[in-house]
Each structure stands twice: as structure tokens, then as C-alpha cells.
Amino acid sequence: MSEMTVARPPLLVARARARAGRLNGPERLVAFSIAVGLVGLGLWLIPLRDVQRVILMGSIPWWFELAAVYATSLLFVQVRVHREVSTLSLTEIPVAMGLFLIDPHQLLGCYVAGVLLASWTRQRRIRWVKDFANAMLDVVYIGVAVLVFNAVGPVTHDPLAVRSIVAFAAAMIVSGWFVYPVILNAGTTLAQGRFNLAEVARAYLFQVIATTTNASLGIVAFVMLTTRPVLALAVIPPVALVLAGQIAAGESQRRADRNEFLYRTTEILHSTRQVGERAGELLNGITAMFGVERAELVVIPEVRGPAVRFSSTGNDEHTSATSSELTFAEQEVLNELRTTAILSGSVTADQTLGLALAERSASAGTVVVLRGLEGPQGMLLLLNPMRGSTLGAHEQSLLSTVAGLVSVALENGQLAEAIKAMSVEKAELARRAFYDPLTQIANRSLFIETVTTSLAQLASSQRPIAVMFIDLDGFKEINDTFGHAVGDRVLSEVAARLRVQVRKLDLAARIGGDEFGMLLDGMRHFTDAAVVADRIIETLRRPIPLGDAVITVGASVGVAVVEDAADAPEAEELMRRADMAMYLAKRQGKNRFVVFDETARTPVIARTPEPARQAVAG
Which domain holds residue 104? Predict the structure, then answer.
């Protein structure tokens, strides 16, 4: 028999599903399996509720049937059709014996239990979705086989009669040729989210051939068991040969998988594309090869700086990338890796490794160092293995080879561009988040954050800070007269002039619309703010040549100063004070600045410059 296999759906299909909010592959398989299980439950509660063994001649104990199902399930052959893997076993042989020699309900229990135990033995773990799907399918498969076998009606006291053989053949044809393959392929198609007629046809052909062959062998085994049990000894050599062949084939397949994996890893690391673009493919290939839940690549830059971390996401096309300083646990792991290449164990078994695993919420894992000519370049972590807490000797050897390939790529600078690109990307994201796209100066978010920081440092710096709110006078008329394109050029020119007026400690920002902000940090005296405000007004009054037009704008400036940390308000409150002073400047004639008097809690005019025309067209 074959087993349902969940393959990863194509990326476009997965994205389409995500947008539509539909169930994913495993969820669809569970829903389908529940429906199949309900059908099987109906079979065993209604037509098969009181079913009894038809053949009354001879019987076998239930434990013998269970052992036979378990053993034949281990004698399997994997048939790969593209991404689909079908496991063809010899389970029809004990089904043949069970239909004739055991109670039907015991046959159901032994078959389901034996197949599950064999699957857990092969995989060394429980795969809940797949195991549940196969168990529900087995309930229907055995139910239909028993129903057809009893409906045809074998001869009660002659299991070798023609009618008895026909009953068994009919049961295998209906259940093994139609019911089982149809449900199996329907479940696999739903899980994968795609339908390929050629693949389904090939898989169906394999299943029919396997059912026919195994059913024939089942009849032969049944005849030997009921007539000449001693002849069963003749089965031992071919069974041993099959086992040896299966072991050899399995080892050969594992060797081929390792070679293909190494080839793929080398191709990724030496791709013309940046490794950062294919890090997801690299790490997800590692997780599949070593049977772990996730993998992480930690790279230490050549120059002193934060480490870069690439983590698998379960998606071949993407990976999560972050940068931060090495943690204490990671530094301890690297120190221990100076004397050994690989650390492997659980979170409680190794204190040094355990801390690094705990930081990643992993129960067990393996770490391998990425060695360079001048010291460690990083490490590769495999987290939460699905087959035990440690890797075997062959797997550790393969992991060391992979670490060597990655180390060579690091030495050759293959990852340098990826790390640089990530840094540039982070810088670009930060710029977009904190800088105004039109004027290329800080936006309101960065301005508030910087003001907050300056206020927090006021106690240690002991130097006054000032916040200015600058609102352009007559800007609305410029927009109405010349259009928004000209207005944007005016805003850009104003921002450029403001940048010239600030020191490195200061910050100019566009708060919104035609409002700008200025932070003066670390002033020598609180009166410096008035000097700068006066200079800003004079600077902004200068004409702005824009092609054939010469435009002049004015500015109303509100200033709020803080000298003592004990009296320092929150950043929003300080900005509100500057805003109040700016509006008072506008009401009192524009083209002037007003300093907020903190003592009187009211804004007062500090200076009124010469009024200027709002806009002049030339």
C-alpha cells in the first residue's frame, strides 16, 4: 500500500491561498481525513457493526496478525514521482490472511496499529497530520474489503474453494484498485494544492500493480499457512533478500540525496546572485536534509560590528535577516568551538550550548563553527531535530562539509555583498521611516525621538536646548498662484537653507505641510536660540529663483527653551510650547519669532524683524 505525502505547493499557489484566506495544505488534508473517517465510522457502525468471521476453518491470534502487518509495512519500496513520494509495502499479504483467519474487528485494529507502528519506526517520529490521514484511510480500506468479502460470500468450511478466492479477489479489486487509490490521490491532491493528471495516473498505476502483486502473494502465503506451514521456511530467503536490498537501496538513496544536497549547496554559494537572495533556499535545504525544524546562519563581519543572522522561514524564496551584537551565550559557544568542530545536545544536557538554544526557544540542536584563516567567521545552528537530540556520525560528517563550503564562501567574499546589501536595505528602510521624502530632512517621528533623547541627556550635558516651530508665511498663495509643483520646489529650497543653519548636534525637520522644526542641542547660553531664530528668518526672506519667477516667502518662528533638567517637560509638551509661540508670531504680524516665556507660562515677543512681501513674481 502507499501513504499520503504532503508536498510543498508552488509559491504562486501558496501566495494566492494566503490572499484568499483559504486553508493551507495540512489543514485541508485534516478536513478531508475527518470526512473519510466519518465514512469509515459509518461502515463499521451500520453494515459491519455485527460482522463475524465467515471462514470457520482455522484461525490465528490477533498478535500474529499485528506482527505480520508491522513486518510487511517495513518491507517497503519508495517510488518518487516528481515531488510525490509513494511508499509501496506488502500489507495486502496479512490482509489476505486476516480476511480468512481473524475476526474483522480485530483485523481493523491490527492493520491500523501495525501500519502506524511501522511508520513511526521508519520515520522515528510521529507526524500527526499524515498519520491521522493514513489511519482514516485504512479504516475505510479494511471496511470496504470486509464488506465486499462477506457480500460475495466465501465457502464457510473451504477457504481454498473457487468462491472463497473470488471473494478475496473481489475485495482486493474494489478496495485496492478503486476505493484506496481514489481516496489516496484525492487527499494528496488536496494537500498539495495542485492536480497533475500524468502524476496521478502514474501513481494510480503503481498502486494497482502493488495491490495485484501483493494480493497474489497473500493467497500464496495463506495457502502455505493453511496446508503446509513448514513451507513458510521457504519464504525466509526471499524475505531476507528483500530486506537486504531495501537496506542497500535506502543507503544508496541517502548517498544520492547527500550528493545532490552538496551539489545544490555549492551551486547556491557560488551563484551569480547574491547569497542573501538565496539564503532561504540554502537554509531550508539544510533543514530538510538534516531533519530539523529550522536552521540559522550567524555571520561575524570582518570589521568589528554586529553579527548578521539569517534564519529559515519554511519558504524556499525568503529568509529572515537581522543584525545585532553577539550574545554572551553565542560568545561562549564560539569559545568552546575553538577546541571542537561541532556541539550537539539538548537544552539541559550542555550548559554552554543550552543557553544559546534557550535564546532561540529550542529544546535541542547542533552548532558547527565556520572557521576562517584568522579565526571563526560565524556558526551554523540546526534547531529542534525531529529524529533524536543529536546527529549521527554520517550526519555530523556531512554537516562539517557544509560548514566548510560556507566558510570558503565567506573567505571568498560571497556573503559580503549580501551582508552589505542587508545593511544598505536597513539604512534605506530607516531613512524612509524617519526622513521626509520630498525635502530629504528628518520627519516628525525622528524629530520627536531626537528631542526626547536630548531632554533625557539634559541632566548630564548641563547645556540648554531649544525647539523651534517654523511656519512659512504666504505659502498657500504660492501654491494657489504657481501650482503644487512650484510649492514643492519652494519647500525643498527652504529645507536646504535650514540645513545650512544647523550644527552637527542640531536637527532640522519637516513637521508637516509647510511647517518645519529645529532642534538646537547643547547651546552655550539660552540666548543662542534667539540668534539662530533671527538668522533663520533673514535666510528664508531671501528670494528663491525658480526659472522665470522669483519667489519670496517669510517665516513665523516659535521658540521654546529648556535650561534645567528638573523643569524639563515631555517632548510633546516642549513642541506644543514652540507651536503656541509660533501662532502668536503669526497673529502679531508674521515674519518674526516669539520665545515662549516658561516663567510667565505665556509666549512673549522677543524681536520683530522688518516685514517682508509674501511673494513676488518676476
Answer: 11-17+29-227
Q: DSSP 3-state assignment of 521?
A: coil
Whether 234 is covered by a domain: the verdict is no
**Residue showing cell 534667539:** 530
Task: Quote the number of domains for the chain.
Answer: 3
CA distance 592 to 584: 10
CATH number, position 470: 3.30.70.270
| pLDDT in the model for residue 250 | 63
pLDDT at residue 82, as a whole number: 45
Q: d(Cα 383, Cα 292) in Å, to the nearest integer?
A: 6
Say if strands 465-473 and 307-312 run parallel, antiparallel, or are unpaired. Answer: unpaired
**Together in a domain, 452 and 416:** no
Question: Is 161 a domain residue?
Answer: yes
Integer Cα distance of 324 and 301 in angstroms: 11
Q: What is the pLDDT of residues 518-576, one digit of tens each?
A: 998 878 888 888 888 988 998 888 888 877 778 888 899 999 998 888 888 888 889 99
SS3 annotation, 240-264 = HHHHHHHHHHHHHHHHHHHHHHHHH
> pLDDT tens digits for 354-395?
888 888 888 888 888 888 777 788 888 888 887 665 677 778
Label residue 208 by pLDDT band (50, 70, 90).
Answer: confident
Decide if 337 is inside a domain.
yes
Question: How many CA atoms within 13 Å lie on the side-chain side of 251?
Answer: 6
| Nearby residues of 458 by Cβ (< 8 Å), 6 or more positions away | 465, 562, 564, 565, 568
How far apart are alpha carbons 99 and 59 in whole angstroms? 10
Question: Residue 356's domain is classified under what CATH number?
Answer: 3.30.450.40
236 falls within a domain = no
Collapsing DSSP to helix, strand or coil, 388 comes out as: coil
If asked whether residues 184 and 107 sit together in one domain, one would say yes
Q: Do 443 and 567 share a domain, yes or no?
A: yes
Instruction: Read off the pLDDT of residues 220-279 as tens digits, 9 standing for 90 and up.
Output: 777 777 777 666 666 667 666 666 665 666 667 677 777 888 888 887 777 655 555 567
Looking at the structure, tell me whether residues 408 and 462 fall in a common domain.
no
Output the CA angle 324-327-329, nearest 5 degrees.
Answer: 150
